[in-house]
C-alpha cells in the first residue's frame, strides 16, 4: 500500500467508523491466523474457499493453521471464547483488516485483500438484516461507489434448501433433452448452476423452473417479507435474485450482495446475510446472527475521486547555517510537544531549496535558523517575515496571528 493508497483508505476507514459507530457498532479485530478447523467447520468443507483457496500450513508445533480467508467465523469464535452471550444482546461489531485467499489474481482479485465487515450477533429480527443492508448502502454512497446494484434473496433453512434441490433436480431431469451438455452433466453435483447458463434452450427451460423463494416455509417467508418491507420503506432499490448463491455455507434466510457495474468480472463489492446456525456449528450457544463484508480494494476501484484532506504542516524548520542543526532539532521537537505539526530539514538543501520544499508541503510558517541569536519566522500565506526571540516562535504560531 503506497502513501497515495493509504490516504484513500484512511478516508474509507473514516466513513466506516462514522457510519457504523453512529449505529452502535464497536470495533473488533481478530488474529490474522486461526486454527484451520475453524474455517473448515465454519465456512464449510464443500466450499471453494476451503477446498482450494486457503493458505494452510503446519506451524513449528505441528498445529494446522490458516491465514483467515474471511472474518465471520473468527468473530463468532471470539464471541464464544469471551462469553459475549452474557452481554446485552445483540452484540454489534465491525472490523477492518487483511484477508487471504489463494485465487488467480486479476483486477479486483488479490491473494491478500482487505475487508471492512459488520456483524450483529444475538438478534433474529428482520430489522437487523435491513439495518445492516442500509448501513452498507450508506457506506458505498459516502465513498461514491458508482453504478451499484443490490441483489437480495432468502435461502430459508438448510432443510428447505435440501428439499428444494431435490425438486430442482427432478425438474431438470424431466427437461434434460433441452438442457446444454454441461448443465446436464452437473444435475447431481450442482443443479443451481443451471440458472447461470448462457445456453438459449437451457435459459428457456430455467424460466419455468421452481425457485427457492417460492418454497420458503411460512416463518422464513414472513421474515423475508419483513426485510423487503423495511428496505422498501427506506427507499432502497433491490433486485430479487432467487439464484443468488454466496461462496460460504453458513447462510440461512436473508442473503444479499452489492455489485458495481463500474467493475469488470470481479463486480461484487460487498455482501453477506444471516447465519443463524453458525454459532452452534462452532459449539457455541444457539445464537441468531447476521452481517456483511465489503472489499476495500474493490470499493476504491469503483469509487470516484475521494476528497483527501492532507494534514496541515504548521511549521517547517529551515537551516540558514548547517551549524544550527541542534537548535532546529529542538525547535521542531518543542513545537510538536506544543501540539503543532512540525518538520525539519533533513536533506541538506540550500535555503532556497528549503523554502521551496516548505511550499510543496504547504507549511503555514517557516522558521529560519542561522548564526544570529534571532530566528526568522516567515508567514507563508502573507509572505512576510519577522525576527523573533527563539522563545517567542512557538507562542506566535499558536496565536495564529499574522506577523
Ligand atoms: P465474501 O462475499 O466472500 O463474504 O467477501 C466479501 C467481499 O470481499 C467481496 O464482496 C469482495 O468485495 C471482497 N473479496 C473477496 N475475495 C476477494 C479477493 N480475492 N480479492 C479482493 N476482494 C475480495 C465474506 O467474506 C463474508 N464473511 C461476509 C459476511 C459477513 N457474511 C456474514 N457476515
From the structure above, extract its key features:
403 residues, five-stranded mixed beta sheet, 37% helix, single chain, alpha+beta, elongated, eight-stranded mixed beta sheet, 14 helices, binds histidyl-adenosine monophosphate
The number of helical segments is 14
Overall 3D form: elongated
**Helicity, as a percent range:** 25-40%
Gyration radius over CA: 28 Å
Biggest sheet statistics: 8 strands, mixed
| Portion in beta strands | 15-25%
Bound molecules: histidyl-adenosine monophosphate
Q: Separation of termini? A: 40 Å
Computed structural class: alpha+beta
Query: What letter string, H or E per element, gives the SSE order?
Result: HEEHHEEHEEHEHHHHEEEHEHEHEHEEEH
Number of strands: 16
Amino acid at each position: 500500500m503506497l502513501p497515495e493508497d493509504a490516504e484513500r483508505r484512511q478516508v474509507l476507514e473514516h466513513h466506516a467508523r462514522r457510519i457504523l459507530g453512529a449505529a452502535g457498532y464497536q470495533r473488533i479485530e481478530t488474529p490474522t491466523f486461526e486454527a484451520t478447523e475453524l474455517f473448515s467447520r465454519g465456512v464449510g468443507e464443500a466450499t471453494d474457499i476451503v477446498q482450494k483457496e486457503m493458505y494452510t500450513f503446519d506451524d513449528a508445533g505441528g498445529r494446522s493453521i490458516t491465514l483467515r480467508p474471511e472474518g465471520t467465523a473468527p468473530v463468532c469464535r471470539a464471541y464464544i471464547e469471551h462469553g459475549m452471550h452474557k452481554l446485552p444482546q445483540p452484540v454489534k461489531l465491525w472490523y477492518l483488516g487483511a484477508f487471504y485467499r489463494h485465487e488467480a489474481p486479476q483486477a479486483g482479485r488479490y491473494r491478500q485483500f482487505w475487508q471492512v465487515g459488520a456483524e450483529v450477533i444475538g438478534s433474529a429480527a428482520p430489522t437487523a438484516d435491513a439495518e445492516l443492508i442500509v448501513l452498507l448502502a450508506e457506506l458505498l454512497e459516502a465513498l461514491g461507489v458508482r453504478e451499484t446494484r443490490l441483489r437480495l434473496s432468502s435461502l430459508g433453512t438448510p432443510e428447505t434448501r435440501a428439499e428444494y434441490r431435490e425438486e430442482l433436480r427432478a425438474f431438470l431431469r424431466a427437461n434434460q433433452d433441452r438442457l446444454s451438455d454441461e448443465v446436464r452433466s452437473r444435475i447431481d453435483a450442482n443443479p443451481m448452476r443451471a440458472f447461470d447458463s448462457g445456453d438459449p434452450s437451457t435459459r428457456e427451460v430455467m424460466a419455468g423452473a421452481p425457485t427457492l423463494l417460492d418454497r420458503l416455509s411460512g416463518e422464513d417467508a414472513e421474515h423475508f417479507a419483513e426485510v423487503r418491507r423495511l428496505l422498501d420503506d427506506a427507499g432502497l432499490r433491490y433486485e430479487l435474485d432467487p439464484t443468488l448463491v454466496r461462496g460460504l455455507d453458513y447462510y440461512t434466510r436473508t442473503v444479499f450482495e452489492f455489485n458495481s457495474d463500474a467493475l469488470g468480472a470481479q463486480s461484487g463489492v460487498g455482501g453477506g446475510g444471516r447465519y443463524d446456525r453458525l454459532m452452534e456449528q462452532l459449539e457455541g450457544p444457539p445464537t441468531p446472527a447476521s452481517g456483511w463484508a465489503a472489499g476495500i480494494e474493490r470499493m476504491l476501484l469503483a469509487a470516484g475521486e475521494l476528497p483527501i484532506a492532507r494534514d496541515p504542516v504548521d511549521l517547517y524548520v529551515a537551516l540558514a547555517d548547517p551549524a544550527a542543526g541542534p537548535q532546529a532539532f529542538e525547535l521542531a521537537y518543542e513545537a510538536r510537544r506544543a501540539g503543532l505539526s512540525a518538520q525539519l530539514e533533513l536533506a541538506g538543501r540550500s535555503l532556497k531549496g528549503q523554502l521551496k520544499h516548505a511550499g510543496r508541503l504547504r507549511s503555514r510558517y517557516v522558521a529560519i535558523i542561522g548564526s544570529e541569536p534571532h530566528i526568522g519566522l516567515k508567514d507563508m500565506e502573507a509572505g512576510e517575515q519577522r525576527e523573533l526571540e527563539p522563545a517567542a516562535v512557538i507562542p506566535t504560531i499558536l496565536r495564529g496571528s499574522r506577523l
